[in-house]
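Thread: Modeling a multi-component assembly for a lab meeting

Hi all, long-time lurker, first post. My supervisor asked me to bring a structural picture of a complex we are working on to next week's group meeting, and I have zero experience with this. I have the sequence lines for every component (920 residues in total). Could someone generate the structure of the whole assembly? Inputs are pasted exactly as I received them:
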Amino acid sequence: MAAAQRMVVVGGDAAGMSAASRARRLRKPGELEITAFERGHFSSYSACGIPYWLGGDVEGPDALIARSPQEHRERGIDLRMRTEVTELDVAGQRVRSRDLESGTEAWHGYDHLVLATGARPVRPPLEGIDARGVHGVQTLDDGQALLDGPAGSSGRRAVVIGAGYIGVEMAEALTRRGHEVTVIERAEEPMSTLDADMGALVRDAMCGMGIEVVTRTEVTALRTGPDGAVTAVVTEGKEYPADVVVLGLGVRPETSLAEAAGLPLGESGGLLTDLAMRVRGHENIWAGGDCVEVWDLVAGRSRHIALGTHANKHGQVIGANIGGGYATFPGVVGTAVSKVCDLEIARTGLLEAQAAAAGLRFVAVTAESTSRAGYYPGARPMTVKMLAERGTGRLLGVQIVGREGAGKRVDVAAVALTARMTVEQMTALDLGYAPPFSPVWDPVLVAARKAAAAVRAAGG
Amino acid sequence: MAAAQRMVVVGGDAAGMSAASRARRLRKPGELEITAFERGHFSSYSACGIPYWLGGDVEGPDALIARSPQEHRERGIDLRMRTEVTELDVAGQRVRSRDLESGTEAWHGYDHLVLATGARPVRPPLEGIDARGVHGVQTLDDGQALLDGPAGSSGRRAVVIGAGYIGVEMAEALTRRGHEVTVIERAEEPMSTLDADMGALVRDAMCGMGIEVVTRTEVTALRTGPDGAVTAVVTEGKEYPADVVVLGLGVRPETSLAEAAGLPLGESGGLLTDLAMRVRGHENIWAGGDCVEVWDLVAGRSRHIALGTHANKHGQVIGANIGGGYATFPGVVGTAVSKVCDLEIARTGLLEAQAAAAGLRFVAVTAESTSRAGYYPGARPMTVKMLAERGTGRLLGVQIVGREGAGKRVDVAAVALTARMTVEQMTALDLGYAPPFSPVWDPVLVAARKAAAAVRAAGG
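Re: Modeling a multi-component assembly
Sure thing. I ran the full set together rather than chain by chain. Output:
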């Protein structure tokens, strides 16, 4: 009988452990040995749930853990916690690990290597950025560190730098915990994953819950007290006192290991893979999750999008392929949903600036509608913005801001984008209608009709 | 200047008045005269809202009226209420109307005729079926008649015959009004628009709200009292006392006018049209709404599906074409959503029996999931059933039963069916994910993964 193949996984969260679990289901331990290394205290958790843990909606961190290290081990995966992989030797097909508790180092050979090293929050090179009380929100360890500091109590002053998804969600969580919260954002409006006209609706909702929103403002430094803890966030015009600072400036791929080993990286620093999630040019090295670039099917380019749902899909694809099956990850269309207070925020496809950067000529329309038939109790207003290509009428993007029932409507547009539908085709979509669920024209169809008219009016 | 063309519309609800309104926006009164005839007391209303009116959720009937006769007239449409069209003279290009109040009759010539005569509830040829207290629920006049009878008070005994959408919604409405409700259904389970295994979930919810559900039971007669009002519903084994009876046996196209004129009808009795909604073989006769058959894109056949959302689309297409534009209605995939108590019920595509009848070989899977991340407050269970074609893996149908957040998820499948996606392709769909909106694998994707595995296992 042939010796078992060795699968080594670097990173014990969504992509890595999905890959390990899928491969384990397909191949017995006698055929495939699986070893996984995680430098943190937690495995297979939902980082997206951290704001809800901090906000008090969720009992953390246990509730955020999909599968504990022990459960993985019981399923035949040798998961080593608090163990960092410090070096990758591609030619020798081995990685070097370091036990963070004992300091012990060891080399491990592999037949298949999975890089699932995730992402790290952007930390701008500002004075005071490494002070105590300044937190990224990327891992459960980060969440625990926040709760162990001033953010764990209430009545403090919190400043969130950056008003993207994480910034906005964290601002709400900190407000609900009883802190006084200021969000400072460089762009014109919060949520620069939306066009500014839609972002303005998010600003209104944030202000409505008592969050101070400061836009078009650059943070220049962080002030630190004699004890080494942050005391204020400094901008060009003003100083904002702060007991705790949260970084919501987005994340970058954590690919230092890959970079040192000479693996191919894209513009964002993310690993470049083929459709089977194999690192380009490397037959037996795979990568997935927040450390890779994904293909954007609408823009026709690869980009870095850190999202747990992609990471899980990557892991499934990698696990299937290592396990002897066949699967691919064809790409994304850029869907994201979020929530601040009772405002639901969603987008898919391209923003105006992204469409222009892709070389596309387009029309953009905005339509107001409601979540249910206007006469049905609980009908809430909703704004849908839609972009379509001039000439062809192909759907390019949708943004939705509204209350209950707004956010997940973006999925219709996500599928339509994947199928490269025109907005005219969309006007005929057979979407579910009944008064408790939708007006007789679903809000997405109202926008599609308006977009189709705009395409006709714009000509070729 | 040429004389204005004459557009005549028969039926003043969704399809007819959408057609009139769209044509009006495209053509001035000097170019196109529009006359519409409606035999009832209401125009442009939401018949789908009637159960909610009766149940007390909606102030009816006014709230259910999208546009009053007066508003239509102010927009330049000569809408004649309580006026029935009694004859269609195709060769002479004219229709005969009868004013139901005065009895006055008149002929009206047309250049374009729009037939939007709707549907009528099925009334089986049973003894007592025409007794007082036996109601269909198709028009606002029907709703008003119900409220004017015993159903308008509370504490009576109500029997609903048929447990389709209308039957189930009416059963809930009557229960909420304080009546004791029995539903009698011929099939194995309620909601025969679902497979029986999914219908069983609906039965549980109905029973949970105190509705008596009697299945596999045929109604044989209705008992009538000396005053001519219904007193009981008789089945083979038993008699159910009833102060009011609601017919929930579905509807048939109301095409007696068209039939008498020799226009082409399908198996269901619905008018047959081309893709522009022109009655086949008749250059200047158009038809839409509940009186036509629509093309089923999944089954590859035409069928009768009475739904307000289709009627509105038909009207838009007809109005655009008469108004000098160009539009088509490519067909439907069979989407429907409904609600009983807090149970959301949705379907699109084909049921098992429909797929078999279409000559398709398929696999069927059922997956349990939740509406939100399992740890997020308010996450509710959901069952998704999915059918896929053997060999190709093409999606054939989806049924969903669950609580809040379940129903509209069917839209993802509706778009995927329209785009003829495979279930394997669906596993990669970039649907919106965040803990308040979805588990990291959306319930539809969970079902798609299971279906893709079943397709692989089934082979060619």
